[in-house]
Design the sequence.
């Protein structure tokens, strides 16, 4: 079976397009990349015998996705400090 994929990705998510990698069922595939204004257009064809799971690695962690982790860490530290302060009062 053959597949065709065309994906548009905002440039803010992939500042270095050379780091982008495409995998189908765990196998890395070459792709064609075009530039359109604020986006990259990633195009590739592939053959597959299973589900045809397509994975696109952006090459780095998007900074906006780190905010929930930082908020959780701040909440845990605050909870620890409050618990410690209440234990000292007892």
Sequence:
């Amino acid at each position: 079976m053959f597949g065709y994929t065309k994906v548009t990705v905002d440039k803010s998510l992939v500042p270095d397009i050379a780091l982008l990698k495409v995998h189908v069922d765990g196998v890395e595939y070459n792709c064609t990349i075009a530039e359109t204004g604020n986006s990259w257009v990633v195009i590739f064809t592939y053959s597959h015998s299973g589900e045809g799971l397509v994975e696109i690695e952006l090459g780095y962690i998007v900074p906006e996705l780190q905010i929930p982790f930082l908020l959780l860490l701040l909440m845990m530290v605050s909870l620890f400090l409050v618990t410690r302060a209440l234990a000292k009062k007892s």
